[in-house]
């Protein structure tokens, strides 16, 4: 090691992590001493070099996005398992997980980081400041006036929690990813080596582009792309060193690289040599870096004229070609578009060269000198995927997401080109119809590492579905392999995600006779295994058939040969074990199937996440454009006498314009490299591949459980990317076969969100959320309506299953979206009292315009009308959840009110506010589902010849009265909390819940045929209060939350405003609802305070106490409750008795 003599810096060169004395806790450090993984509660480590003067920087690649504190510390800092960098006086840190900065105390700072992000840590010891950057964007000065002077020097340092990992770059790489002007890297770049390499590459290029004319004895120039070298290439050793040490430089020598790889021996030598040409380094060849500074890419010359949107619609979205666009604006926009096209053509030249390199690596005809290049590449590619799929890999071995995006697109282009070439020769199907056959998922030819399968653990599936494999696919799992995957498999790290939470475990667990030793809580993973097995044991099995069966074992990547992949006479290769349901299609190059499978895996690993991250540039352009337009309007309105304000506004205008000039050019680059029409077609092709793969796997019946979860994930994510990331530059509606693809995806979501073959709770939740989002948009909802009727009815039947023992909130949300637009006062997109506020994200599914589905409503009505048992269980579960959600909401607003009234600490936890708002929204949505049911199938409540109709109507009346009493009581708890206007409780208001209740009352009192029956039940309910009805009709003494024929009253906005109250339905509701008061006598007495009221109905005094838990309510509520349930409202203890209660005299 060389001791550095540069002023302001002390320590050896090269700079590495101090793994001998500068650490605390248990850490794993990579061989190059730059990557580190935490292996204890909170480990810390510093670098070997420190700085005491000048401006210095280093970079950190975030490999996992968990809890880490990155920054600087002095030699005097002492860390432990609880305190790390930033927790001691002379250490300073940035934490992107919690979005805070740390120096003994902590405050909010910066942005949230994600895996693949690069953090730059800058220290200016002349000014005494520390700054951090995220992906080259400054987060602002974090610390000022840091301690400096004699004896004070700062080391790069990090503290990280268990399993978190990063990789440092102190300057050892050829160039910093995001250099910051004025700051030096801690390590000097290897300038001499770089110069030598540059010169050597020039020499090689001269050699390749020069030939000798022997007859005329002179040198001739030729195209180096046509280079061929015969015999044993003596230059290979030199090339090996170049590839190994200077791979990033080869981006500038793509033509040279192409020329070298055209030579068969050179290509295979480089592919086979582990040290010289692994896939990770080759990925660099397919990366086109997005410039942070427009000057470094020559963008100012390519795009001399910049443009950004200046016209916005009512929702704040950009208008692509506004009608009132001026001639000057139109000229600027067209000049900008021409510049974007010039840039795109330049980039396409580079992309074409990169595709050529991949096509050379995918050559499967060069078998004269051993194994073909494609199979060498395929095995390297699979190892590359394995390293990136496993969190146990070294962080420095992980491929950055931005590299992965470029690699994916080039690989798709190259693979489709090879596929088309092959299909033309053999008559196989086109790449347009490509999919991955289901047998790849279970025949052991392709290693899926520890990726989760739809049916759970692979070892469990092999045991429970071995008869199905034999019967359907003629495959027998090697008994030795089944023996090996016994209970030992259950000891895999839980972090790998291999252990699955079973679906339906509670239902089936009791059916299995377990040995007593399995009941130990320490064997939780074993219990999960048995429960998962129970689900699969329910799958019907086909008896063994007589055709010849093949015994298979899972092959490791390095053990496979070309025959294992492509097959030979009598051997299907990758397609071994074709199930009876799978068509026998000609696939010429089976190796391409595995590469397609790898492409899907790449998208799932990090490409989708990166596509979402890059959208932020477009969002920034929009925000700055709105700010600039607002500033220009203020300048126009600014009075001439206020020159000081005008000066400040003009400064702001200049800053915004400069920022937009920079961002618009950067956006042009991103649109050309990431969001272009061609890239959109790649993602669309990937979506279609996943859809076809899922459809074929689904046809195999129980063997569908072997399919990896990632195919469903990629199908959902690719659709989301096409819909949200590529617009408005490219529209999804322009894609070929767009509507058919939407319908196919709708069928997959509708069928598999409740598929018993899928056991993973995470993937089931993802499917449910995707379906919930799908029904929010008119085009995708129409796609759901286009799927076959049998599938639509099955979907609705699954949605109407009882809510207990399953995640029900998303199910309820789906039903609400199918109804929204049809309900009473339910045609709004946003709550009326929130119309004046700007939504955080207008693209959210919940903020889409109502688009009800009358077709699916009809299916729901038919199902509930014909199946009386299902209707009763469904509605009882909805009423139970409404009772729970509203009770939780009331309990929470009581706590919030108490916290707000404390004089010593007026603070309410934001998480508590969020949960409170969620409970309110759930209550409203459950009321809307009840309104939907009453409207579509009123006989469920009003036809008392049905066995449960009377009980359901009484339960409904009780809950409606409880809600009304709580919400409409004068100056009550609900009013007080609403008037606090707390951030996070914006949706909590009188309007949404009162119109939902009114919608139900209108249906059973106005539109119903049996009005008198419904009226008598409402009136006879002990919770009925006349003032609640008067409040609804605007006849109460204080009408601040009511609405009548003249429209909602109250200027305070407590109930919002809407035009619905003058409608015929509302006017018709007045006499019917108002007549309820004619048969009701005025209350004899009222409780003296709110504390004396029953906490359930809020209508009567507390008169009963439960035993043994001593909770209280009125007698009417507990008697009604005990008809269906023996558990306490509050603590769920079993009620053994109910006694009279009277308030003791004070």
Major sheet, described briefly? 8 strands, mixed
Q: Helix count?
A: 35
Q: Identify the overall geometry.
A: globular
Indicate the percent of residues in helices.
40-55%
Task: State the separation between the terminal residues, measured CA to CA.
Answer: 85 Å
Identify low-pLDDT runs. 229-234, 244-250, 486-547, 1036-1065, 1081-1086
InterPro entries: B30.2/SPRY (IPR001870), B30.2/SPRY_sf (IPR043136), ConA-like_dom_sf (IPR013320), RNF123/RKP/RSPRY1 (IPR045129), SPRY_dom (IPR003877), SPRY_RNF123 (IPR035773), TPR_RNF123/RKP (IPR057987), Znf_RING (IPR001841)
Protein name: E3 ubiquitin-protein ligase RNF123
Domain RING-type: 1094-1132
EC number: 2.3.2.27
Topology:
Blueprint: E1 2-3, E2 9-10, E3 12-13, E4 23-24, E5 27-29, E6 35-38, E7 42-46, E8 50-51, E9 55-62, E10 68-73, E11 91-95, E12 100-103, E13 105-108, E14 118-124, E15 129-134, E16 137-143, E17 155-161, E18 165-169, E19 184-185, H1 191-208, E20 210-213, E21 218-221, H2 236-245, H3 254-262, H4 264-272, H5 279-283, H6 299-302, H7 327-361, H8 373-389, H9 401-426, H10 458-464, H11 466-473, E22 475-477, H12 479-484, H13 505-509, H14 524-537, E23 550-552, H15 562-566, H16 590-637, H17 643-673, H18 677-698, H19 710-724, H20 738-752, H21 761-774, H22 778-786, H23 789-799, H24 809-819, H25 854-866, H26 868-901, H27 910-936, H28 939-942, H29 949-968, H30 973-980, H31 990-1007, H32 1011-1020, H33 1026-1032, E24 1043-1044, E25 1047-1048, H34 1064-1074, E26 1104-1107, E27 1112-1113, H35 1115-1122, E28 1137-1140
């Amino acid at each position: 090691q060389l001791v550095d003599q540069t002023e302001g810096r002390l320590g050896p060169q090269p700079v590495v992590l101090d793994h001998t004395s500068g650490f605390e806790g248990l850490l794993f450090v990579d061989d190059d001493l730059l990557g580190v993984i935490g292996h204890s509660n909170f480990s810390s480590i510093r670098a070997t070099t420190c700085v005491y003067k000048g401006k210095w920087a280093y970079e950190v690649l975030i490999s996992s996005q968990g809890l880490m504190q990155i920054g600087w510390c002095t030699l005097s800092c002492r860390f432990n398992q609880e305190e790390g960098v930033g927790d001691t006086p002379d250490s300073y840190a940035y934490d992107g997980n919690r979005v805070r900065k740390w120096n003994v105390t902590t405050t909010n700072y910066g942005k949230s980081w994600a895996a693949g992000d690069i953090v730059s840590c800058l220290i200016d010891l002349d000014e005494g400041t520390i700054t951090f950057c995220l992906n080259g964007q400054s987060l602002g000065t974090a610390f000022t006036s840091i301690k400096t002077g004699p004896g004070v020097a700062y080391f790069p340092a990090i503290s990280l929690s268990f399993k978190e990992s990063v990789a440092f770059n102190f300057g050892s790489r050829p160039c910093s990813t995001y250099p910051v002007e004025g700051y030096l890297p801690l390590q000097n770049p290897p300038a001499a080596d770089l110069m030598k390499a540059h010169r050597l590459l020039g020499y090689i290029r001269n050699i390749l582009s020069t030939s000798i004319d022997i007859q005329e004895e002179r040198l001739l120039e030729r195209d180096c792309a046509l280079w061929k070298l015969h015999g044993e290439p003596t230059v290979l050793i030199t090339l090996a060193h170049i590839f190994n040490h200077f791979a990033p430089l080869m981006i500038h020598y793509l033509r040279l690289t192409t020329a070298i790889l055209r030579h068969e021996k050179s290509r295979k030598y480089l592919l086979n040599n582990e040290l010289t040409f692994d896939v990770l380094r080759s990925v660099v060849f397919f990366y086109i870096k997005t410039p942070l500074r427009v000057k470094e890419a020559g963008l100012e010359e390519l795009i001399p004229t910049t443009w950004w949107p200046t016209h916005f619609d009512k929702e704040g979205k950009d208008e692509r070609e506004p009608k009132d666009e001026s001639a000057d604006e139109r000229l600027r926009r067209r000049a900008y578009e021409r510049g974007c096209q010039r840039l795109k053509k330049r980039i396409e030249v580079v992309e074409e060269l990169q595709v050529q390199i991949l096509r050379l690596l995918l050559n499967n005809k060069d078998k004269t000198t051993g194994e073909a290049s494609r199979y060498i590449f395929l095995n390297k590619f699979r190892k590359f995927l394995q390293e990136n799929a496993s969190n146990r890999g070294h962080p420095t071995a992980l491929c950055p997401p931005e590299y992965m995006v470029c690699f994916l697109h080039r690989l798709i282009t190259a693979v489709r080109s090879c596929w088309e070439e092959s299909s033309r020769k053999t008559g196989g199907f086109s790449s347009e119809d490509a999919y991955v056959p289901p047998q790849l998922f279970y025949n052991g030819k392709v290693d899926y590492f520890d990726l989760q399968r739809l049916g759970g653990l692979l070892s469990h599936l092999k045991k429970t579905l071995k008869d199905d494999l034999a019967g359907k696919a003629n495959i027998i799992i090697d008994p030795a392999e089944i023996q090996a995957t016994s209970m030992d498999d259950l000891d895999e790290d839980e972090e790998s995600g291999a252990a699955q939470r079973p679906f339906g475990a509670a239902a089936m667990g009791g059916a299995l006779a377990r040995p007593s030793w399995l009941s130990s809580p320490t064997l939780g993973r074993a219990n999960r295994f048995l429960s998962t097995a129970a689900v699969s044991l329910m799958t019907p099995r086909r008896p063994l058939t007589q055709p010849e069966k093949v015994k298979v074992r899972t092959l490791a990547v390095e053990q496979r040969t070309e025959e294992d992949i492509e097959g030979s006479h009598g051997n299907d290769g990758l397609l071994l074990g074709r199930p009876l349901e799978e068509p026998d299609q000609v696939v010429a190059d089976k190796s391409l199937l595995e590469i397609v499978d790898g492409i899907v895996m790449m998208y799932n690993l990090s490409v989708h996440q990166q596509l979402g991250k890059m959208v932020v540039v477009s969002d920034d352009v929009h925000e700055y454009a709105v700010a600039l337009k607002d500033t220009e309007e203020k300048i126009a309105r600014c009075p001439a006498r206020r020159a000081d304000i005008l000066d400040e506004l003009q400064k702001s205008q200049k800053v915004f314009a400069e920022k937009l000039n920079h961002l618009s050019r950067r956006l042009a680059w991103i649109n050309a490299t990431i969001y272009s029409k061609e890239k959109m077609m790649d993602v669309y092709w990937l979506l279609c591949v996943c859809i076809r793969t899922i459809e074929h796997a689904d046809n195999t019946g129980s063997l569908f459980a072997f399919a990896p979860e990632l195919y469903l994930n990629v199908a959902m994510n690719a659709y989301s990317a096409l819909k949200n990331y590529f617009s408005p530059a490219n529209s999804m509606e322009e894609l070929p076969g767009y509507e058919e693809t939407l319908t196919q995806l709708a069928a997959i979501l509708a069928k598999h969100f409740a598929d018993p073959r899928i056991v993973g709770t995470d993937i089931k939740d993802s499917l449910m959320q995707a379906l919930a989002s799908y029904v929010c948009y008119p085009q995708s909802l129409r796609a759901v309506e286009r799927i076959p009727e049998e599938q639509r009815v099955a979907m609705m039947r699954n949605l109407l299953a009882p809510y207990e023992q399953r995640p029900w909130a998303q199910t309820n949300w789906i039903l609400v979206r199918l109804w929204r637009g049809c309900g009473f006062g339910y045609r709004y997109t946003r709550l009326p009292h929130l119309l004046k506020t700007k939504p955080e994200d207008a693209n959210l599914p919940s903020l889409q315009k109502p688009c009800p589905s009358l077709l699916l409503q009809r299916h729901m009505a038919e199902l509930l009308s014909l199946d009386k048992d299902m209707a009763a269980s469904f509605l009882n579960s909805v009423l139970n959840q409404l009772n729970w959600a509203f009770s939780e909401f009331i309990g929470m607003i009581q706590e919030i009110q108490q916290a707000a009234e404390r004089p010593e600490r007026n603070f309410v936890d934001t998480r508590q506010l969020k949960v409170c708002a969620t409970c309110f929204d759930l209550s409203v949505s459950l009321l809307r589902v009840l309104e939907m049911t009453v409207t579509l199938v009123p006989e469920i409540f009003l036809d008392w010849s049905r066995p449960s109709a009377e009980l359901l109507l009484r339960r409904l009346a009780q809950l409606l009265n409880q809600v009304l009493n709580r919400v409409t009581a004068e100056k009550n708890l609900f009013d007080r909390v609403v008037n606090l206007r707390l951030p996070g409780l914006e949706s909590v208001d009188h309007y949404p819940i009162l119109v939902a209740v009114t919608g139900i009352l209108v249906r059973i009192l106005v539109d119903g045929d049996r009005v008198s029956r419904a009226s008598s039940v409402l009136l006879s309910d002990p919770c009925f209060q006349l003032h609640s009805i008067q409040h609804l009709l605007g006849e109460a003494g204080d009408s601040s939350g009511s609405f009548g024929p003249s429209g909602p009253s109250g200027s305070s906005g407590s109930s919002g405003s809407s035009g619905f109250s003058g409608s015929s339905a509302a006017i018709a509701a007045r006499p019917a609802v108002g007549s309820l008061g004619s048969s009701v006598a005025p209350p004899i007495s009222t409780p003296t305070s709110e504390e004396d009221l029953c906490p359930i109905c809020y209508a009567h005094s507390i008169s009963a106490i439960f035993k043994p838990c001593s909770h209280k309510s009125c007698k009417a509520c507990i008697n009604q409750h005990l008809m269906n349930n023996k558990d306490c409202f509050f603590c769920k203890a079993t009620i053994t008795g109910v006694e009279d209660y009277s308030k003791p005299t004070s």
